[in-house]
Amino acid sequence: MLNRILAPESKQISEINFKKPLAQHLDNGIPVFTINAGRQELVRIEFIFKNVNWDEGKPLQALTASHLINNGTTELSAKEIAEKVDFYGAFLQTEYGADQCSVKLYSLNKHLAEVLPILYSILNASVFPEKELSIFVQNQKQSLSVSLQKNDFLARKQFANALFGDTPYGSNISAVNYDAIKRQDLLDYFQAAYKPENCTIFVAGKFEENEFSILNAVVGKDWANNGDSKDNHFSFSSPIGSEILIEMPEALQSAIRMGMITINRTHEDFAGFQVLNCVLGGYFGSRLMSNIREEKGYTYGIGSGVVSLQDTGYFFIATEVGADVCQSAVTEIEKEIDLLKNDIIPEEELDLVRSYMLGSLLGSLENAFSHADKFKNLYFSGLDYSYYDRYIHTVKTIDSQSLRILAHKYLISSDFTKVVAGKK
Predict the structure, then answer these.
(1) 22-219, what's its fold?
(2) What is the pTM of this model?
(3) Cβ atoms of residues 48 and 376 within 8 Å
Protein backbone atom coordinates (compact mmCIF):
# COMPACT_ATOMS: atom_id res chain seq x y z
CA MET A 1 0.00 0.00 0.00
CA LEU A 2 1.10 3.51 -0.80
CA ASN A 3 1.79 5.44 2.41
CA ARG A 4 0.41 8.91 1.66
CA ILE A 5 1.82 10.34 4.87
CA LEU A 6 5.36 10.03 3.54
CA ALA A 7 6.55 12.33 0.77
CA PRO A 8 7.90 10.52 -2.29
CA GLU A 9 11.67 10.15 -2.45
CA SER A 10 13.30 12.91 -4.45
CA LYS A 11 16.41 12.46 -6.56
CA GLN A 12 18.57 15.01 -8.28
CA ILE A 13 18.48 14.92 -12.07
CA SER A 14 21.61 13.11 -13.19
CA GLU A 15 21.76 13.94 -16.89
CA ILE A 16 20.21 16.42 -19.33
CA ASN A 17 20.65 15.76 -23.04
CA PHE A 18 20.45 18.49 -25.67
CA LYS A 19 19.57 17.94 -29.31
CA LYS A 20 22.28 19.69 -31.31
CA PRO A 21 21.57 21.30 -34.67
CA LEU A 22 22.83 20.43 -38.12
CA ALA A 23 24.63 23.45 -39.63
CA GLN A 24 24.16 24.21 -43.34
CA HIS A 25 24.10 27.22 -45.69
CA LEU A 26 21.72 28.30 -48.40
CA ASP A 27 23.11 29.21 -51.82
CA ASN A 28 23.06 32.91 -50.89
CA GLY A 29 25.15 32.28 -47.77
CA ILE A 30 22.45 32.36 -45.07
CA PRO A 31 23.40 29.95 -42.27
CA VAL A 32 20.71 27.40 -41.39
CA PHE A 33 20.67 25.48 -38.12
CA THR A 34 18.25 22.56 -38.01
CA ILE A 35 16.93 20.57 -35.05
CA ASN A 36 15.40 17.65 -36.96
CA ALA A 37 13.15 15.95 -34.41
CA GLY A 38 9.57 14.88 -33.85
CA ARG A 39 7.15 12.61 -35.66
CA GLN A 40 4.59 15.15 -36.78
CA GLU A 41 4.84 16.61 -40.29
CA LEU A 42 5.23 20.08 -38.83
CA VAL A 43 8.07 22.58 -38.96
CA ARG A 44 8.96 26.00 -37.55
CA ILE A 45 11.29 28.11 -39.67
CA GLU A 46 12.57 31.23 -37.94
CA PHE A 47 14.38 34.03 -39.77
CA ILE A 48 16.32 36.18 -37.30
CA PHE A 49 17.83 39.54 -38.18
CA LYS A 50 20.21 41.51 -35.96
CA ASN A 51 18.98 45.01 -35.18
CA VAL A 52 21.13 47.65 -36.90
CA ASN A 53 21.51 51.39 -37.42
CA TRP A 54 20.22 52.54 -34.02
CA ASP A 55 19.11 56.18 -34.18
CA GLU A 56 18.07 57.93 -30.94
CA GLY A 57 15.92 60.24 -33.02
CA LYS A 58 13.98 57.27 -34.46
CA PRO A 59 13.64 54.88 -31.51
CA LEU A 60 10.64 53.03 -32.99
CA GLN A 61 12.12 52.39 -36.44
CA ALA A 62 13.13 48.75 -35.93
CA LEU A 63 10.11 47.89 -33.78
CA THR A 64 7.61 49.29 -36.28
CA ALA A 65 9.30 47.63 -39.24
CA SER A 66 9.12 44.31 -37.38
CA HIS A 67 5.42 44.72 -36.61
CA LEU A 68 4.43 45.78 -40.13
CA ILE A 69 6.72 43.70 -42.31
CA ASN A 70 3.93 41.24 -43.16
CA ASN A 71 1.32 43.93 -43.90
CA GLY A 72 1.81 44.20 -47.63
CA THR A 73 4.34 43.56 -50.40
CA THR A 74 4.69 44.69 -54.01
CA GLU A 75 2.58 41.66 -54.95
CA LEU A 76 0.29 40.98 -52.00
CA SER A 77 -1.86 43.10 -49.69
CA ALA A 78 -2.00 42.44 -45.95
CA LYS A 79 -5.37 40.74 -46.45
CA GLU A 80 -4.07 38.53 -49.24
CA ILE A 81 -1.05 37.49 -47.18
CA ALA A 82 -3.29 36.52 -44.26
CA GLU A 83 -5.76 34.65 -46.47
CA LYS A 84 -3.07 32.68 -48.31
CA VAL A 85 -1.27 31.70 -45.12
CA ASP A 86 -4.56 30.68 -43.48
CA PHE A 87 -5.57 28.67 -46.54
CA TYR A 88 -2.60 26.37 -46.03
CA GLY A 89 -3.15 26.07 -42.30
CA ALA A 90 0.12 27.89 -41.63
CA PHE A 91 0.91 30.65 -39.16
CA LEU A 92 3.18 33.70 -39.45
CA GLN A 93 4.52 35.49 -36.39
CA THR A 94 6.79 38.50 -36.06
CA GLU A 95 8.74 39.26 -32.88
CA TYR A 96 10.74 42.31 -31.86
CA GLY A 97 13.56 42.22 -29.34
CA ALA A 98 16.10 44.82 -28.35
CA ASP A 99 18.90 42.80 -30.01
CA GLN A 100 17.16 40.94 -32.85
CA CYS A 101 13.90 40.77 -34.79
CA SER A 102 12.41 37.60 -36.19
CA VAL A 103 9.82 36.31 -38.63
CA LYS A 104 8.55 32.81 -37.78
CA LEU A 105 6.66 30.44 -40.03
CA TYR A 106 4.79 27.41 -38.68
CA SER A 107 3.71 25.09 -41.46
CA LEU A 108 2.83 21.54 -42.37
CA ASN A 109 5.66 20.02 -44.42
CA LYS A 110 3.40 19.25 -47.34
CA HIS A 111 2.60 22.94 -47.82
CA LEU A 112 6.12 24.37 -47.55
CA ALA A 113 6.49 24.79 -51.31
CA GLU A 114 3.33 26.94 -51.37
CA VAL A 115 3.87 28.92 -48.17
CA LEU A 116 7.57 29.77 -48.41
CA PRO A 117 7.15 31.99 -51.51
CA ILE A 118 4.74 34.14 -49.47
CA LEU A 119 7.36 34.49 -46.77
CA TYR A 120 10.06 35.23 -49.32
CA SER A 121 7.93 38.03 -50.74
CA ILE A 122 7.57 39.51 -47.24
CA LEU A 123 11.31 39.39 -46.58
CA ASN A 124 12.26 40.66 -50.03
CA ALA A 125 9.54 43.10 -51.08
CA SER A 126 7.57 44.55 -48.14
CA VAL A 127 6.20 48.05 -48.81
CA PHE A 128 4.76 49.16 -45.43
CA PRO A 129 1.50 50.73 -46.70
CA GLU A 130 0.57 54.12 -45.24
CA LYS A 131 -2.86 52.79 -44.24
CA GLU A 132 -1.37 49.96 -42.18
CA LEU A 133 1.13 52.34 -40.60
CA SER A 134 -1.65 54.74 -39.62
CA ILE A 135 -3.64 51.94 -37.96
CA PHE A 136 -0.54 50.73 -36.12
CA VAL A 137 0.26 54.22 -34.79
CA GLN A 138 -3.31 54.78 -33.64
CA ASN A 139 -3.48 51.41 -31.84
CA GLN A 140 -0.08 51.79 -30.20
CA LYS A 141 -0.81 55.29 -28.94
CA GLN A 142 -4.05 54.07 -27.41
CA SER A 143 -2.28 51.12 -25.80
CA LEU A 144 0.44 53.41 -24.45
CA SER A 145 -2.17 55.79 -23.03
CA VAL A 146 -3.76 52.93 -21.09
CA SER A 147 -0.39 51.55 -19.92
CA LEU A 148 0.72 54.94 -18.60
CA GLN A 149 -2.04 54.70 -16.00
CA LYS A 150 -0.51 51.51 -14.55
CA ASN A 151 2.03 51.70 -11.76
CA ASP A 152 3.96 48.60 -12.80
CA PHE A 153 4.36 49.84 -16.38
CA LEU A 154 5.61 53.24 -15.22
CA ALA A 155 8.11 51.67 -12.82
CA ARG A 156 9.41 49.23 -15.44
CA LYS A 157 9.69 51.97 -18.09
CA GLN A 158 11.53 54.40 -15.81
CA PHE A 159 13.80 51.68 -14.45
CA ALA A 160 14.90 50.65 -17.95
CA ASN A 161 15.53 54.24 -18.96
CA ALA A 162 17.53 54.93 -15.81
CA LEU A 163 19.78 51.93 -16.46
CA PHE A 164 20.13 52.02 -20.24
CA GLY A 165 19.27 55.55 -21.32
CA ASP A 166 18.12 56.26 -24.88
CA THR A 167 19.04 52.87 -26.34
CA PRO A 168 16.80 50.00 -27.51
CA TYR A 169 16.80 48.69 -23.93
CA GLY A 170 15.60 51.86 -22.26
CA SER A 171 14.30 54.45 -24.70
CA ASN A 172 11.63 56.57 -22.99
CA ILE A 173 8.89 56.18 -25.61
CA SER A 174 6.01 58.67 -25.74
CA ALA A 175 3.09 59.34 -28.10
CA VAL A 176 5.24 61.90 -29.92
CA ASN A 177 7.60 59.12 -31.02
CA TYR A 178 4.74 57.25 -32.66
CA ASP A 179 3.56 60.38 -34.47
CA ALA A 180 7.09 60.84 -35.85
CA ILE A 181 7.22 57.45 -37.61
CA LYS A 182 7.49 57.89 -41.38
CA ARG A 183 6.96 55.24 -44.02
CA GLN A 184 10.31 56.08 -45.66
CA ASP A 185 12.09 55.36 -42.37
CA LEU A 186 10.59 51.87 -42.39
CA LEU A 187 11.63 51.28 -46.00
CA ASP A 188 15.17 52.45 -45.21
CA TYR A 189 15.39 50.15 -42.22
CA PHE A 190 13.95 47.24 -44.18
CA GLN A 191 16.61 47.66 -46.85
CA ALA A 192 19.38 47.81 -44.25
CA ALA A 193 18.34 45.00 -41.90
CA TYR A 194 16.32 42.42 -43.83
CA LYS A 195 18.97 40.97 -46.13
CA PRO A 196 20.80 37.62 -46.39
CA GLU A 197 24.08 38.81 -44.84
CA ASN A 198 22.18 39.90 -41.71
CA CYS A 199 20.01 36.78 -41.47
CA THR A 200 20.27 33.48 -39.60
CA ILE A 201 17.68 30.72 -40.00
CA PHE A 202 16.75 28.31 -37.22
CA VAL A 203 14.59 25.32 -38.15
CA ALA A 204 12.87 22.93 -35.77
CA GLY A 205 10.59 20.00 -36.44
CA LYS A 206 10.57 17.28 -39.04
CA PHE A 207 12.94 18.79 -41.57
CA GLU A 208 15.02 16.63 -43.85
CA GLU A 209 16.79 16.87 -47.23
CA ASN A 210 13.63 17.42 -49.24
CA GLU A 211 12.45 20.28 -47.01
CA PHE A 212 15.92 21.88 -47.07
CA SER A 213 15.91 21.74 -50.86
CA ILE A 214 12.57 23.56 -50.94
CA LEU A 215 13.86 26.21 -48.51
CA ASN A 216 17.01 26.70 -50.57
CA ALA A 217 15.13 26.89 -53.87
CA VAL A 218 12.75 29.57 -52.57
CA VAL A 219 14.87 31.60 -50.13
CA GLY A 220 18.44 30.86 -51.22
CA LYS A 221 18.35 33.51 -53.96
CA ASP A 222 19.74 37.04 -53.97
CA TRP A 223 17.44 39.54 -52.30
CA ALA A 224 16.80 43.07 -53.53
CA ASN A 225 17.53 44.56 -50.09
CA ASN A 226 20.96 46.16 -50.10
CA GLY A 227 20.92 49.13 -47.73
CA ASP A 228 23.99 50.00 -45.65
CA SER A 229 23.94 48.71 -42.08
CA LYS A 230 25.97 49.03 -38.90
CA ASP A 231 25.59 46.55 -36.04
CA ASN A 232 24.23 47.89 -32.76
CA HIS A 233 26.65 47.81 -29.85
CA PHE A 234 26.38 49.74 -26.59
CA SER A 235 28.34 50.30 -23.40
CA PHE A 236 26.66 51.18 -20.11
CA SER A 237 27.60 52.52 -16.71
CA SER A 238 24.87 52.00 -14.15
CA PRO A 239 23.86 55.01 -12.03
CA ILE A 240 25.00 54.47 -8.45
CA GLY A 241 22.31 54.47 -5.80
CA SER A 242 19.74 56.60 -7.63
CA GLU A 243 16.18 56.73 -6.26
CA ILE A 244 13.25 57.74 -8.46
CA LEU A 245 9.71 58.36 -7.22
CA ILE A 246 6.85 58.64 -9.69
CA GLU A 247 4.24 60.27 -7.49
CA MET A 248 0.65 59.05 -7.92
CA PRO A 249 -1.37 60.64 -5.07
CA GLU A 250 -4.45 58.44 -5.51
CA ALA A 251 -2.54 55.16 -5.72
CA LEU A 252 -3.63 52.31 -3.47
CA GLN A 253 -0.62 50.26 -4.52
CA SER A 254 2.98 51.15 -5.27
CA ALA A 255 5.10 49.38 -7.86
CA ILE A 256 8.70 48.79 -6.83
CA ARG A 257 11.49 47.98 -9.25
CA MET A 258 15.13 47.95 -8.23
CA GLY A 259 18.39 46.56 -9.51
CA MET A 260 21.51 47.33 -11.46
CA ILE A 261 23.53 46.57 -14.58
CA THR A 262 25.53 43.39 -14.11
CA ILE A 263 27.08 40.44 -15.98
CA ASN A 264 25.59 38.41 -18.83
CA ARG A 265 25.84 34.72 -19.69
CA THR A 266 29.32 35.08 -21.20
CA HIS A 267 30.76 35.76 -17.71
CA GLU A 268 32.14 32.89 -15.64
CA ASP A 269 30.05 33.91 -12.61
CA PHE A 270 26.74 33.97 -14.45
CA ALA A 271 25.57 30.44 -13.60
CA GLY A 272 26.41 30.91 -9.93
CA PHE A 273 24.64 34.25 -9.91
CA GLN A 274 21.55 32.53 -11.32
CA VAL A 275 21.60 30.10 -8.38
CA LEU A 276 21.92 33.01 -5.96
CA ASN A 277 19.06 34.81 -7.69
CA CYS A 278 16.87 31.73 -7.45
CA VAL A 279 17.41 31.58 -3.69
CA LEU A 280 16.55 35.26 -3.35
CA GLY A 281 13.56 35.62 -5.65
CA GLY A 282 13.71 33.28 -8.62
CA TYR A 283 10.93 30.82 -7.78
CA PHE A 284 7.76 30.55 -5.70
CA GLY A 285 9.58 29.20 -2.66
CA SER A 286 12.18 31.97 -2.70
CA ARG A 287 13.13 34.08 0.29
CA LEU A 288 11.45 37.20 -1.05
CA MET A 289 8.18 35.31 -1.56
CA SER A 290 8.40 33.71 1.88
CA ASN A 291 9.02 37.04 3.59
CA ILE A 292 7.17 39.73 1.60
CA ARG A 293 4.16 37.62 0.58
CA GLU A 294 3.71 34.82 3.07
CA GLU A 295 4.98 36.32 6.34
CA LYS A 296 4.26 40.04 5.90
CA GLY A 297 1.33 39.85 3.47
CA TYR A 298 2.53 42.96 1.62
CA THR A 299 2.02 41.58 -1.91
CA TYR A 300 0.53 38.83 -4.03
CA GLY A 301 3.84 38.27 -5.75
CA ILE A 302 7.47 39.36 -5.81
CA GLY A 303 10.41 38.10 -7.80
CA SER A 304 13.91 38.78 -8.98
CA GLY A 305 15.72 37.98 -12.20
CA VAL A 306 19.04 38.06 -14.02
CA VAL A 307 18.70 39.05 -17.69
CA SER A 308 21.40 38.47 -20.30
CA LEU A 309 21.57 40.97 -23.17
CA GLN A 310 23.91 41.21 -26.15
CA ASP A 311 26.41 43.64 -24.62
CA THR A 312 25.54 43.51 -20.93
CA GLY A 313 23.13 42.09 -18.36
CA TYR A 314 21.05 43.36 -15.49
CA PHE A 315 19.60 42.21 -12.19
CA PHE A 316 16.17 43.32 -10.98
CA ILE A 317 13.64 42.87 -8.18
CA ALA A 318 10.00 43.70 -8.92
CA THR A 319 6.77 43.76 -6.96
CA GLU A 320 3.60 45.72 -6.21
CA VAL A 321 2.66 46.36 -2.60
CA GLY A 322 0.09 48.34 -0.66
CA ALA A 323 1.03 52.03 -0.72
CA ASP A 324 1.05 52.13 3.09
CA VAL A 325 3.72 49.41 3.36
CA CYS A 326 5.97 50.45 0.46
CA GLN A 327 8.91 51.57 2.58
CA SER A 328 8.56 48.54 4.83
CA ALA A 329 8.71 46.26 1.79
CA VAL A 330 11.90 47.95 0.56
CA THR A 331 13.42 47.51 4.03
CA GLU A 332 12.55 43.79 4.05
CA ILE A 333 14.00 43.31 0.56
CA GLU A 334 17.29 44.85 1.67
CA LYS A 335 17.23 42.70 4.80
CA GLU A 336 16.99 39.53 2.70
CA ILE A 337 19.94 40.65 0.60
CA ASP A 338 21.98 41.31 3.74
CA LEU A 339 21.17 37.83 5.04
CA LEU A 340 22.61 36.29 1.86
CA LYS A 341 25.82 38.24 2.46
CA ASN A 342 26.15 37.42 6.14
CA ASP A 343 24.66 33.97 6.69
CA ILE A 344 25.26 30.55 5.16
CA ILE A 345 22.38 29.16 3.09
CA PRO A 346 21.21 25.91 4.72
CA GLU A 347 22.02 22.82 2.65
CA GLU A 348 18.37 21.71 2.65
CA GLU A 349 17.30 25.02 1.07
CA LEU A 350 20.13 24.86 -1.46
CA ASP A 351 19.20 21.29 -2.43
CA LEU A 352 15.64 22.45 -3.11
CA VAL A 353 16.90 25.26 -5.35
CA ARG A 354 19.18 22.85 -7.20
CA SER A 355 16.29 20.47 -7.86
CA TYR A 356 14.07 23.32 -9.00
CA MET A 357 16.63 24.77 -11.41
CA LEU A 358 17.61 21.43 -12.94
CA GLY A 359 13.97 20.40 -13.20
CA SER A 360 13.10 23.70 -14.88
CA LEU A 361 15.89 23.24 -17.41
CA LEU A 362 14.83 19.67 -18.17
CA GLY A 363 11.17 20.70 -18.38
CA SER A 364 12.02 23.44 -20.84
CA LEU A 365 13.33 20.87 -23.33
CA GLU A 366 9.97 19.40 -24.18
CA ASN A 367 10.13 19.48 -28.00
CA ALA A 368 12.24 20.38 -31.02
CA PHE A 369 11.19 24.03 -30.80
CA SER A 370 12.51 24.44 -27.25
CA HIS A 371 15.79 22.72 -28.16
CA ALA A 372 16.18 25.23 -30.98
CA ASP A 373 15.48 28.10 -28.57
CA LYS A 374 18.22 26.87 -26.22
CA PHE A 375 20.68 26.80 -29.11
CA LYS A 376 19.73 30.36 -30.14
CA ASN A 377 20.74 31.59 -26.68
CA LEU A 378 24.18 30.09 -27.22
CA TYR A 379 24.57 31.22 -30.81
CA PHE A 380 23.86 34.90 -30.23
CA SER A 381 26.09 34.91 -27.15
CA GLY A 382 29.02 33.39 -29.04
CA LEU A 383 28.93 30.26 -26.87
CA ASP A 384 28.78 26.51 -27.47
CA TYR A 385 27.12 23.63 -25.62
CA SER A 386 29.91 23.54 -23.05
CA TYR A 387 28.04 26.52 -21.52
CA TYR A 388 25.20 24.20 -20.46
CA ASP A 389 27.70 21.65 -19.15
CA ARG A 390 29.21 24.35 -16.95
CA TYR A 391 25.76 25.60 -15.93
CA ILE A 392 24.61 22.14 -14.84
CA HIS A 393 27.88 21.48 -13.03
CA THR A 394 27.61 24.81 -11.18
CA VAL A 395 24.01 24.22 -10.12
CA LYS A 396 24.91 20.77 -8.79
CA THR A 397 28.10 21.69 -6.97
CA ILE A 398 28.15 25.35 -5.91
CA ASP A 399 28.30 25.70 -2.14
CA SER A 400 26.93 28.25 0.30
CA GLN A 401 30.26 29.97 0.87
CA SER A 402 30.68 30.57 -2.87
CA LEU A 403 27.15 32.00 -3.03
CA ARG A 404 27.92 34.32 -0.13
CA ILE A 405 30.95 35.63 -2.03
CA LEU A 406 28.76 36.22 -5.11
CA ALA A 407 26.22 38.07 -2.96
CA HIS A 408 28.92 40.48 -1.78
CA LYS A 409 30.12 40.86 -5.37
CA TYR A 410 26.84 41.42 -7.20
CA LEU A 411 24.04 42.23 -4.74
CA ILE A 412 25.13 45.72 -3.75
CA SER A 413 21.81 47.20 -2.66
CA SER A 414 23.34 50.62 -1.95
CA ASP A 415 24.21 50.84 -5.67
CA PHE A 416 20.75 49.76 -6.88
CA THR A 417 18.62 52.03 -9.00
CA LYS A 418 15.33 52.09 -7.09
CA VAL A 419 12.08 53.17 -8.75
CA VAL A 420 8.75 53.50 -6.98
CA ALA A 421 5.58 54.35 -8.89
CA GLY A 422 2.78 55.30 -6.49
CA LYS A 423 3.51 56.38 -2.91
CA LYS A 424 6.71 55.69 -1.03
Answers:
(1) Cytochrome Bc1 Complex; Chain A, domain 1 (3.30.830)
(2) 0.92
(3) yes
